[in-house]
Write a structure and sequence with these properties.
10-stranded antiparallel sheet; binds (2R,3S,4R,5S)-2-(hydroxymethyl)piperidine-3,4,5-triol; single chain; 8-stranded parallel beta barrel
């Protein structure tokens, strides 16, 4: 039986994994089909209205089986200034016919008709994807809307715009999706902003009438705003409770998410390519596919938003390996040596790192070309023979003999004008004719959209990994675009799409050819973190800011959107290079243990006591690592609300929980606040193992309901004090 006949018979279709489920129902009018998609605790329903337009009918808590919704209906004209097209919650609004609100699609066509009126044409299921096709009433344009539900509670949406005619069509705006929330007021929204060394700052504010624009115009994801949002109900949504609609865009180039609340209180989200400076030409028969937009809903507050995202990223986004293993504890040389890397110095650091129990040794910037500082060398990916006279092999061999694997820093998309590559191929850089090429950090951006540049980048990386036993690449990207020109193509603005496609292709080909290779996405810290790049990379460099106190809020913000296991955090030296703050070694370690632990200090300067403390804490981390990296995260108290903060992780099977507690700055000699845990089995008993016996004087075994009700007491005093408790469920 075909799916089409399933629909006609009012039956249900159930998608295969990774999909949750989708049901299709049809009332008495065969043109009024509804599609219901369930994912986790969310239902999402769309339907065709009497004017054959596709509407969002519902986005909210899961509906009961068999629940029916009223048929889709165009909203009536409220006034001659508010036409139905602008007030009806359309699934993919196209500009035209009086759409004054944010369009998902805007075209320019050869005959001058820039209008689109998209009507329902068809639907089908391909594998585990639902596809609904819309067609314009006049122009030969089809829009295919794709829906894929995940059992972790997420719905992926994207679109494909197709030119069915013979003349080229110029796309000016093409979003992945529009999604409508229940009409009304009283919403609040949360979003993440930042800057270099200050990423992941969380903001929450009432959603007022108007349009909020989250975006990057920079050619990459950006430090400034991350493509994540959550929308709650003022007064009802908290960290622990209340409704939350949320979304995340999977695109590493210029992007935009608009949150719109119209004067008639229609609330909608549109996400996708940034229409700013956008242009894409569809020749006859051609299509443009948009990035994936991932959306979810929970009734359990912002904490659950994060946990759904973390579970989803682990299950459906992050690359899988033939030999799955936790994120290794790495050592990175950057803060210790900066560009001054050489064979003897790196081996000396590796020997000390191994003694601490470190598992991966990474040489950062400076190992290649004529790289003495940031003025030269990018583009020349041959080993610098002055620094490494025998190539990388002696260091790699020594790292291996010490029981660690080896990683290397690269910045493949960039070139210094002072490099052999630039002297040979000045035309490979993105630029405008007769216009100065703006340097940032003395470097220019290669135009990866060009096939020959893509092949060069893949080629040198492939050679590097093939010729050396490299387990890990730290892939850096240290500037934004300034002259996004492309001289060899009819529509240079396609660079915004083609560059990122080629970046993803290089990453995918590298991983395919070297299945054990792991990659970290770095962009001067956290400038390129999104669900697009995370399909090809295993972890990200969270921020160049390694000050432990700043890191608490940076990491807190990060975990709203991304899983702790990808959040690389190094313990570095004090006074910190950025703000000269001095914090105790244990504080630095316990902050870095919130994610994928690393060490980045100059071990040559560490005392015997530093080495002893670090060895003990690294061994401690190994015991809690699976819980931290793959468990459920509870932000018990976020930094910024007072002088203390705590995070808790509960293992997937519930057998272990970990509490990390921090005192930033004690006031008036007050006791540390009672810590009330979450996510435990209320009836189970937990044995409590403190990291520091002197900081926990409570019972050694406590029931879950007590820990989640009365809580527990730890003794932290002064400035930058910290401790950890490990709770094991008693069988
Ligand atoms: C920026 C990164 O964020 C740093 O960790 C380091 O790798 C430098 N680049 C090297 O140039």
């Amino acid at each position: 039986m075909s799916l089409r006949s399933v629909a006609v018979l009012f039956s249900a279709i159930v998608f295969a994994a990774p999909c949750a489920s989708a049901q299709v129902s049809q009332g008495s009018d065969p043109n009024r089909t509804q599609w219901r998609i369930d994912a986790g605790e969310m239902s999402y329903v769309v339907g065709v209205n009497e004017q054959k337009m596709l509407q969002t009918l519902y986005w909210g808590p899961k509906l009961a089986p068999g629940a029916t919704l009223p048929a889709a209906r165009m909203h009536p004209e409220r006034a001659s200034f508010d036409p139905p097209i602008a007030t009806t919650p359309l699934e993919y609004p196209a500009w035209g016919a009086g759409l004054f609100t944010e369009p998902a699609l805007k075209v320019g066509s050869p005959n001058g008709d820039r209008t689109l009126i998209l009507q329902y044409a068809d639907w089908r299921q391909t594998g585990d994807q639902l596809e609904i096709t819309l067609r314009d009433t006049a122009q030969p344009i089809a829009v295919h809307l794709f829906y894929q539900a995940y059992q972790q509670g997420m719905l992926a949406r994207w679109s494909r715009v197709e030119n069915l005619g013979k003349e080229p069509i110029h796309l000016e705006q093409s979003a992945s999706a529009t999604m409508n929330l229940p009409q009304g007021t009283g919403y609040e929204w949360s979003w993440l902003t930042g800057q270099w060394a200050g990423e992941w700052q969380l903001h929450t504010a009432p959603l007022q009438t108007g349009m909020l624009v989250l975006e990057s115009r920079r050619g990459s994801t950006s430090h400034q705003t991350n493509p994540w949002f959550a929308i709650g109900r003022t007064g009802a949504t908290t960290e622990r409770d209340g409704p939350a609609w949320f979304g995340e865009l999977g695109w590493s180039g210029s992007w935009r998410i608009t949150l719109e609340s119209t004067s008639l209180n229609n609330v909608r989200v549109t996400a996708g390519y940034n229409p700013y400076d956008f242009g894409y030409v569809l020749a006859a028969g051609e299509s443009l596919e948009t990035p994936r937009f991932y959306a979810g809903y929970t009734q359990h507050g912002n904490g659950e938003v994060s946990r759904i995202l973390h579970r989803f990223q682990r299950a459906a986004i992050l690359p899988t390996r033939p030999d799955p293993k936790p994120r290794p504890i790495l050592y990175n040389s950057w803060e210790a040596t900066e560009f001054d890397v050489n064979e003897t110095g790196q081996i000396a650091l590796a020997e000390k790192a191994a003694k601490l129990g470190i598992e991966r040794f990474v040489i950062d910037d400076g190992w290649f070309g004529a790289r003495k500082d940031d003025h030269a060398g990018l583009g020349d990916w041959q080993v610098n023979r002055t620094k490494f006279p025998n190539g990388l092999k002696p260091v790699i061999d020594r790292v291996h003999s010490l029981g660690m694997d080896f990683g290397l820093w690269v910045e493949p998309e960039m070139v210094n004008p002072d490099s052999d590559l630039y002297r040979k191929h000045p035309d490979w850089v993105m630029s405008f004719p007769n216009r100065q090429r703006t340097e940032q950090r003395n470097q220019l951006v290669l135009n990866l959209a060009k096939p020959e540049v893509k092949e060069y980048v893949f080629g040198f990386l492939d050679q590097l990994v093939t010729e050396n036993d490299i387990a890990f690449l730290k892939w850096d990207y240290n500037r934004n675009w300034s002259e996004p020109g492309w001289d060899t193509t009819p529509e240079p603005k396609e660079i915004y799409v083609q560059y990122i496609r080629n970046l993803y292709e290089i990453l995918a080909r590298l991983r395919q050819k070297h299945p054990k290779l792991e990659i970290e996405s770095c962009s001067g810290g956290g400038g390129r973190v999104d669900l697009g790049i995370l399909r090809y990379t295993d972890e990200v460099w969270t921020s160049d800011n390694t000050d432990a106190l700043d890191r608490l809020s940076i990491q807190d913000g990060f975990t709203h959107a991304y899983a702790p296991q990808v959040m690389v955090a190094w313990v570095t030296d004090v006074p910190n290079f950025l703000d000269k703050r001095t914090t105790p070694l244990q504080f630095r370690f316990l902050v870095a243990m919130q994610g994928a632990l690393g060490v980045g200090g100059n071990l040559n300067k560490w005392t015997a006591e530093d080495m002893e403390i670090s060895t003990r804490l690294i061994a401690f981390y190994k015991g809690i690592r699976p819980t931290v990296q793959t468990g459920s995260l509870y932000r018990l108290t976020s930094p910024g609300t007072g002088g203390d903060s705590q995070v808790e992780y509960v293992a997937q099977d519930g057998s272990q929980a970990v509490l990390l507690a921090y005192l930033h700055s004690q006031r008036f000699g007050l006791d540390y606040p009672t810590v009330v845990l979450q996510g435990l089995d209320p009836g189970a008993r937990y044995s409590i193992r403190p990291l520091d016996a002197s900081k926990y004087k409570g019972e050694s075994t406590v029931q879950g309901s007590v820990l989640m009700g009365a809580g527990l007491q730890v003794s932290l005093t002064g400035d930058y004090d910290s401790t950890a408790l490990v709770l094991e469920r008693v069988r």
